[in-house]
Specification:
single chain; 10-stranded mixed beta sheet; elongated; 3-stranded mixed beta sheet; alpha/beta
């Protein structure tokens, strides 16, 4: 009896083909969609933050210790620059506006959430007068405040333009050397020939010359309590431009042209 079953290969070929689909990487798709959504939301967020109407600045707080400035003056100075919102206001412009006031030494600005700027100001500390209208601060920098705000009693410094810092440093150095004798500088001048003149609060003027001015001042400091202090009110000038001594011009001399000399002139 014949076996009528078809071979296995033939039976399989007669079956309908199975359709296969490629797997979709859903994680990648979701990641890409999330990235697009994040970029879109971020774009709208940035636009919202950069909108000058978002969180507008409502207040400017002023902090600092003032003698010649007022908060009202500072508010008025920066008012035109406080424009925009919390994220868009130009803090550099606010600082520059504050520094236009002559009595402002330093100024810094920071944002305080959600609608405030805090302006911190350091006032100039005047050390001396320079010329008729200017003042010098501790660093020897010139500034020119209104004439009616100039403080009285400051020493007078005078010298070539550009040497303000040099004279200020010399004022501190010489003043420190004179302090143990109870003397203060009221006037410090470097003339066009670069010679130094020092006016003291007891009325005496010291002439120190061009070279070795500080060394000559130290010589005066050593001599003053031993030789000169008891007659200080009678002395007009002391010329220290000598190798080992000095020359004194007395107030009672009519023309102050016959000083007492010690040592040799240099």
């Amino acid at each position: 009896m014949l076996n009528r079953r078809k071979p296995q290969a033939q039976r399989r070929s007669a079956e309908p083909p199975v359709q296969r689909f490629a797997r979709i990487p859903w994680r990648w798709v979701l990641g890409a969609l999330s990235a697009v959504l994040l970029v879109t939301v971020s774009g709208y967020g940035v636009r919202w933050l950069l909108d000058p109407h978002t969180l507008p600045i409502q207040r400017v707080q002023i902090s600092g210790q003032f003698q010649h400035l007022t908060s009202a003056q500072l508010q008025e100075a920066v008012a035109g620059t406080v424009v925009g919102g919390f994220f868009t206001v130009n803090v550099q412009a606010v600082m520059r506006a504050a520094r236009t006031l002559p009595w402002v030494d330093t100024a810094s600005v920071r944002r305080v959430w959600p609608d405030t700027l805090r302006l911190e100001v350091t006032e100039q500390v005047p050390v001396a007068r320079w010329g008729e209208h200017d003042l010098l601060n501790r660093r020897g920098e010139r500034f020119a405040p209104p004439a009616d705000t100039l403080p009285s009693g400051l020493p007078q410094l005078q010298g070539p333009d550009g040497l303000e810092a040099t004279l200020t440093a010399s004022y501190y150095e010489m003043g420190k050397a004179l302090a143990p004798d109870g003397l203060k500088i009221t006037r410090l001048i470097q003339d066009p020939r670069r010679s130094w003149h020092v006016g003291l609060d007891n009325g005496i003027e010291l002439r120190l010359g061009h070279d070795s001015a500080y060394t000559r001042l130290l010589r005066f400091v050593r001599l003053y309590p031993k030789v000169l202090a008891t007659r200080a009110t009678e002395i007009a000038t002391i010329d220290l431009r000598y190798t080992n001594g000095f020359a004194v011009a007395w107030n009672h001399q009519p023309d102050n042209t016959k000083p007492t000399q010690q040592g040799g002139h240099t």
